[in-house]
Specification:
385 residues, mainly alpha, Arc Repressor Mutant, subunit A, 2 domains, 16 helices, 0% strand
Amino acid sequence: MSTVLFNTLDLALLFTIYQCVLFAFFLLLIKKGKKQSNVLLALFLLSYAAIPLDTLINFGEAFRQFSIEFSPNVFYVFGLAYWLEAVLLLFYVRSLIYKDFSFKRINLLYLLPFVLYLFYETSNWYMIDSTTKIAILNGYQIEAEPFHTRFINLFRECFRTFCGVLCLLELRHYQRQIKNNFADIEDVDLTWLKILVIGFLIIKVQAVLVTIGYMTSIDLHFAINYPVIGQLSNFMVMFLISFLIFFSLGVSNLFHGIDSSIVTTPEKQSIDPAQVSALTLYMEEHKPYLNHLLTLDNLATQTFMPPRQLSQVINRHFEKNFFEFINSYRIEESKILLTKEENSKITMLEIMAQAGFNSKATFNTFFKKVVGMTPTQYRREQREQ
């Protein structure tokens, strides 16, 4: 940014820091929900709090001179958070999506840019004496920055954007896999998490544009009002953090994680006919689908079959996902209930519940898809016969 921030922007940045720190400590103290997810979200918030603090120290009218007098070492240290926050958000999303999420060695690759930048800042800033640092800070002009500094900043923002795209891809993968794990998906609401991920992705894209803007202005002498884009991002972050605080706790506690090992592969695989027969017999005799809380893991336990193998049997042999497989049995059960004379007086909600459905919308939609008419129309047609 080529100009100091206005007081209103200073207040927005301070409020963002306050929200992030307060909510992070709240997450670390509560015991509800997934502890791992809460810790990752808290670390993400603390890292994000460091970013507006870095902005205030470097460009805030009321903060820059005070920071120089306090200690030149506070400059750039909080900027390390740029390399962490997007990675922590990615880990947080994955911890919600995958119930068996754990850190592996490959995850360390996401931290490599942070480590490399830490070495870079240590050798180029923290190893020099305080007098030289103060002289550099007092004579600082953004136009005088070396080109490699601007290139590093551009790489940083592209890396953050890349992590944001990965978050979005993880959500898309979750949406494709959810029906392979659950028969009732009405209460799986990804809206809040999508808004969060897309919102921060937009901010990261804006950061790329800001960086390109000031590189273009300095290196190509083509004036672009890039500070305006950056200032708009500050307000967007403040509102996104508020949104996150308002929605995340209540919803994330109910989030249905999936097993990362259960991934449907496109190629055909041989299926044991004995497993198919055993599953079919169990479904017909024990009717586990009448339990509206039935999941792939529950059914796997009941049929003494590994979840991954059960998923493959359902997908390969029956050519359905778990959602379609279970609800097709529920539809057949509801058809039987609707044709019984003694059920002529009971409501559709009672029929739905007795058949194992927990959602009226799923019941009506799936019934019409399979049977070709609504449950009410089917009941009427059966009475007329």
